[in-house]
Design brief:
The chain is of the alpha/beta class. Strands 6-5-2-7-8-9 form a 6-stranded parallel beta sheet, with helices on one face. It has a 3-stranded antiparallel beta sheet with strand order 1-11-10, with no helix packed on it. Strands 3-4 form a two-stranded antiparallel sheet. It has 2 domains: 146 residues, HAD superfamily/HAD-like (Rossmann fold); 57 residues. Helix 1 crosses helix 2, helix 1 packs antiparallel against helix 4 and helix 3 packs across helix 4. The chain contains 8 helices and 11 strands. It is globular, with a radius of gyration of 17 Å.
């Protein structure tokens, strides 16, 4: 059993299934620049677009332009964006002042995808433009916890990607990996799906029982 005072959620792959859209765009990018698509997709998982583009193209105007084009295309593609199983029910049961979204997506894209998936928006959102360093830096999770008014150590992070799991761990929070990335799962509690969580309020926060978990 875990205990938390607040919850910090990644978006893509954790609350929202955008896999097909995201991977299609990275395949398009890879073909354009003659890169190995599988290598690009593996690196990009959980990271900001610009960080991934710079990793493969190097810093410079070309990388900025390519990242802007990728972001613009993703803003227009909402078909196939759906909620992860259990996400809607879980979020609806949490008080607005006890959860935040921490995503590598821009604020506009995050709002579009959450709406497309039929999920509520939290009062606190820390998006790509709100941090100096993206995941695996813990900056986003530390900032979200602070805005909510809690220490990161008293929060639980929900993540699906190795970069995000490392960010959550580095913040000092406990991490629950949802369909965890094999490279990061050993450092987190693992939950195959959000429907396998039992979250019960208590006098100081919430008790969380993982019906299938590994330490």
């Amino acid at each position: 059993m875990l205990h938390a005072e607040a919850f910090l959620f990644d978006m893509d792959g954790t609350l929202v299934d955008s896999t097909e859209v995201v991977e299609n765009e990275w395949r398009r990018f890879s073909a354009r620049f003659d890169l190995d698509a599988e290598e690009v997709i593996a690196f990009a998982h959980g990271r900001q677009t610009l960080d991934t583009v710079i990793h493969f193209l190097g810093a410079g105007e070309e990388a900025v332009t390519a990242a802007d084009e990728l972001d613009a295309r993703e803003l227009m593609i909402l078909d196939g964006i759906v909620a992860i199983a259990g996400a809607a029910d879980l979020l609806q049961r949490l008080p607005q002042d006890r959860w935040a979204l921490v995503t590598s997506a821009s604020r506009e894209l995050a709002i579009n995808r959450m709406h497309a998936a039929g999920l509520p928006l939290p009062a606190v959102m820390v998006c790509a433009e709100d941090v100096a360093e993206g995941k695996p830096s813990p900056e986003g999770y530390l900032k979200a916890a602070s805005i909510l008014g809690y220490r990161a150590q008293d929060c639980i992070v929900f993540e699906d990607a190795a970069a995000g799991i490392r960010a959550g761990n580095a913040s000092g929070a406990r991490v629950i990996a949802v369909v965890p990335d094999a490279n990061g799962a050993q450092e987190a509690f693992a939950c195959a799906t959000l429907t396998m969580l039992n979250i019960v309020p208590d006098t100081s926060g919430f008790r969380i029982t993982l019906l299938m978990a590994e330490e």
